[in-house]
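dumping this here so i dont lose it
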């Protein structure tokens, strides 16, 4: 059943009276995101985003509220919708509306509401788009190409028949791995119409957010959903990239009896083995798993042949891409029905009476059942996003000359974020002596 929402001139959210709770939660996040506060304070003075419209499709959490505040401080108009139907914190949406952000998001939104909200962001004709999974950018391109489908039809009810919304965009930024893969493929095909800054590819994002953020918050999501013990369990992680590494190492730290990794890539498989994980195909791992978490960015990682061999009461969840890593139609087909056992746990009864527990509808478990990445981690990712927006304004001409390319956020910006975070955490770096600098920069000196 669709969630009842409240609509105003600049919002569609769950409940505007949740503002006070949201403001308190925002304060909590602010005190844990020092780098973003430094940027915000500079933006208040310099107003680098004056008159700029930012259209963001992100997880609407307390951390995102801090990014929105930095954008507002810089003088931007901010339009925000959710990049996931389950991850929105409703109290934050109410607090953000009170701060002047245009917000279209609520927890448990259905597909119609999800695309209507994206439509509201597109309708604002943003100059800069910020995506987490490339939804806004993909739909703007689809409109321009004159393509239509169910999603476009929902959006057209909000924006009308114009197809030229993308013409207002100077540049975009993309927050996650899967979005970058899609946008790079569009660029390779000559289909991308404007530059995209690959926030996800910056060290300050993928070295920390994907590893430590996804690692901790996925375990948090599993625990909140199931309240099960991890110690003594057989814990399977599909994919040993940035996210999978984080989940697997934390499962080990929580005392899992065996941590098993499934991989398709030899280096990742070797690294998992040398990190002390077992590596085997999913067909084998599924037979012995108590918990399986996918983190691959690929589809159908858990499918029919795996459901057929799983143990009774196996918990399965996803920390990777949308809700496609677990093939839910296969699970539906093999089962006689499902029961909502607890929030975020649907128990499927298989035809042979085994029970399989699907966590968070197969959507990102760390955002569905927990609160996404901790604020301290998002401080890095969103500091990058704030500075990427400023960069897009300052370098509008250069970026527009680049056309449809996926570009890196400049190294100086990433280094600056890392330095500010070290300072905030009281980490003092060593410095090179002049002789050392010479040694490292000259091929004539040395061996
Ligand atoms: N949950 C979150 O909050 C969160 C945060 C960041 C990224 N992500 C998403 O998580 C996914 C993984 O991101 P990443 O940064 O770890 O990517 P990555 O490219 O570093 O790692 C993905 C790994 O999965 C492996 N893989 C691919 N298909 C596989 C399959 N069928 N079976 C087994 N292994 C397979 C790849 O070889 C690779 O090692 C992406 O979809 C990304 O968008 C989620």
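and the seq i came up w/
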């Amino acid at each position: 059943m669709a969630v009842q929402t409240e609509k105003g001139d600049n919002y569609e959210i769950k409940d505007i009276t949740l503002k006070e709770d949201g403001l308190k939660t925002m304060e909590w996040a602010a005190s844990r995101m020092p780098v973003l506060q430094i940027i915000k304070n500079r933006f208040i003075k310099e107003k680098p985003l004056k008159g700029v419209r930012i259209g963001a499709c992100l997880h609407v959490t307390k951390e995102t509220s801090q990014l929105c505040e930095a954008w507002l401080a810089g003088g931007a108009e901010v339009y925000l919708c959710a990049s996931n139907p389950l991850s929105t914190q409703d109290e934050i949406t109410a607090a953000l509306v009170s701060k002047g952000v245009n917000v279209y998001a609520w927890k448990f939104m259905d597909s119609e509401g999800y695309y209507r909200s994206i439509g509201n962001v597109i309708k604002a004709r943003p100059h800069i788009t910020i995506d987490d999974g490339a939804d806004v950018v993909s739909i703007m391109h689809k409109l321009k190409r004159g393509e239509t489908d169910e999603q476009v039809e929902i959006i057209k009810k909000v924006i009308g028949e114009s197809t030229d919304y993308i013409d207002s965009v100077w540049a975009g930024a993309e927050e996650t791995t899967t979005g970058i893969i899609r946008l790079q493929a569009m660029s390779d095909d000559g289909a991308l119409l404007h530059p995209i800054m690959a926030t996800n590819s910056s060290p300050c994002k993928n070295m920390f957010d994907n590893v430590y953020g996804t690692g901790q918050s996925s375990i948090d999501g599993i625990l909140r959903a199931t309240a099960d013990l991890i110690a003594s369990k057989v814990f399977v992680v599909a994919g040993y990239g940035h996210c999978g590494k984080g989940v697997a190492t934390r499962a080990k730290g929580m005392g899992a009896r065996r941590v098993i990794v499934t991989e398709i890539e030899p280096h990742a498989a070797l690294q998992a083995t040398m990190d002390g994980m077992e590596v085997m195909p999913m067909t084998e791992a599924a037979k012995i798993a108590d918990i399986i978490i996918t983190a691959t960015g690929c589809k159908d990682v858990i499918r029919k042949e795996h459901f057929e061999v799983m143990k009774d009461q196996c918990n399965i969840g996803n920390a990777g891409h949308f809700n496609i890593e677990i093939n839910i139609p296969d699970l539906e087909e093999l089962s006689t029905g499902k029961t909502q056992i607890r929030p975020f746990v649907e128990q499927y009864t298989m035809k042979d009476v085994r029970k399989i527990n699907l966590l968070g509808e197969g959507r990102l478990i760390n955002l569905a059942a927990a609160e996404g990445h901790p604020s301290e981690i998002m401080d890095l990712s969103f500091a990058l996003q704030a500075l990427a927006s400023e960069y897009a304004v300052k370098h509008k001409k250069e970026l527009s000359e680049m056309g449809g390319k996926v570009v890196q956020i400049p190294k100086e910006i990433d280094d600056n974020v890392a330095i500010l975070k070290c300072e905030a955490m009281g980490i003092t770096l060593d410095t090179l002596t002049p002789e050392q600098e010479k040694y490292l920069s000259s091929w004539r000196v040395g061996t």
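The pocket of nicotinamide-adenine-dinucleotide is lined by residues 176-178, 206, 210, 214, 238-244, 262-265, 268, 295-298, 301, 319-321, 364, 366 (CB under 6 Å).
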